[in-house]
Amino acid sequence: MMERxxxxxxxxxxxxxxxxxxxxxxxxxxxxxxxxAGEGARKRVTALTxxxxxxxxxxxxxxxxxxxxxxxxx
Length: 74
Hints:
By secondary structure, the chain is an all-alpha fold. It has four helices and no strands.
């Protein structure tokens, strides 16, 4: 029982870490392209919890012509 709980905890921690890493990548892409992304963008990105949405955000952070377009989507 404890072993199962430990495995579940490790998996949960791994998933959380991956999502935090994805969010960090989105913010880095935004800051590289547009300079300081601002607190609003930071809050929106860190609030994303779905991996698919994080992936979309990362792609848009790379391709959006302006920060405002990114913010209008996320």
